[in-house]
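Bug #2210: token dump truncated for Lactose phosphotransferase system repressor?
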Amino acid sequence: MYATERQQLIERMLADDGRVAVLDLAARFDVTTETVRRDLAALEDAGALRRVHGGAVSPERTSVAEPSVAERSQRHSAAKERIARRALAALPNGTGSVYLDAGTTTAALAAALVTRAETRGCEVVTHSMTIAHTLAGAPGIGLTAIGGRVRGLTAAAVGSDTVAAIGRLRPDVAFLGANGIASGAGLTTPDPDEAAVKRAIVAGARRVIVLVDADKFDAELLVSFADLSELDVVVSDREPGAGLARALREADVEVWIA
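Reproduced locally. Full output below:
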């Protein structure tokens, strides 16, 4: 296979998955890792990707890139709905307390909660204005909305008052979103204020369930807010790659595939 052909295939893989790994590419094309790195260097020079440790990502995936809620709601919507339905198995039976983090996948879970008879008597807490709107007035579901300064990009409350209010809570289970999950960095997000809120959720919850589509695998954003060892379950639409899968096993984290 010519270098041009390999590079075209690499671009297609990036378009599909958002990330490629040097070792995986070398095995797929039956070439050396040095050959793959030359291909990635050529593509980076052309502006088609950005090289990172162990591989490359799409050029728009930087450590501070953060699309709006409206933009994210259009991405992988079918996968997010499947993840939300699969995550329902982690809900307490009957009465119980649930914390819902801000995010489009947790918003899909909130929508599923409204129609689930078994959640009647459930007490939900959230700092997401979007999720609060979805659950407000839902029959049999108690709702507590945590206030604070609302970030327009995510429609979520942030700031010291928000963190302090969450720090006083001990929910039975927390459903958490993340912009990235990686073996070394754990869970990450671009914004420090969002990270502080998420860190408080993790610290207080008795059980932590992370909802992420496979596009978040091996992505590392600016701020880390939880180690893999602090998680109980990761729910996604595809199996993680070998390195992340091994790190999750070593951290005793269950992986549920929707």
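Output looks complete on our side. The chain has two domains: 3-57, 69-257. Marking as cannot-reproduce; reopen if the truncation happens again.
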